[in-house]
């Protein structure tokens, strides 16, 4: 399929992940070299995928062609997730074909262009969007279902299937209220205070109070420390 896609649009990398709730996503196909795979696959599977807009869209069972910029929160490119992980990919742009499978599973075929190549042009994006129905059908024929967790992932690294390891559950032991957990989750994804306020239907000042309380309870002072705590908790649960 990648050969056929390259005949129509230029891209540097292609990767296919399978998503099942919050479980660690199996990599189904990649075009990376070993060093590149370490960043794009191994590091991603260790926990950052939980904050990936593509992961969120897949779990929400979006279908079709989407550009990262269409899915990312308003402060995504200034988020600690972007600075600490996504910037390591050195991508100019990532686009994806989102393919819901039977049940709760989804497959996402991502096409990537590095900064040296520049982002996808308007004509490229339009062409890829037009190609989406065929690409989606080909993906469904190739990946009719995802491999089971125990065979897709190394046992010591496997997270529980489905939504048993939901993002919100990682904060349960830290005495955060349900509302504070929601705020933490949105902050980590890259939502601004204003975006969080709109989502919750509250004033921006209320969100700021929640954020101050969260920092106090977690003993942190910055988003960098919040992201580090997020990864620390994930690693402690493996």
UniProtKB/TrEMBL annotation:
It holds the Pfam family GerE. Keywords: DNA-binding, Transcription, Transcription regulation. CDD domains: LuxR_C_like. One of its GO terms (molecular function) is DNA binding. Coiled coil: none annotated. One of its GO terms (biological process) is regulation of DNA-templated transcription. Residues 169-234 form the HTH luxR-type domain. SUPFAM superfamilies: C-terminal effector domain of the bipartite response regulators. It comes from the Bacteria. This is Helix-turn-helix transcriptional regulator.
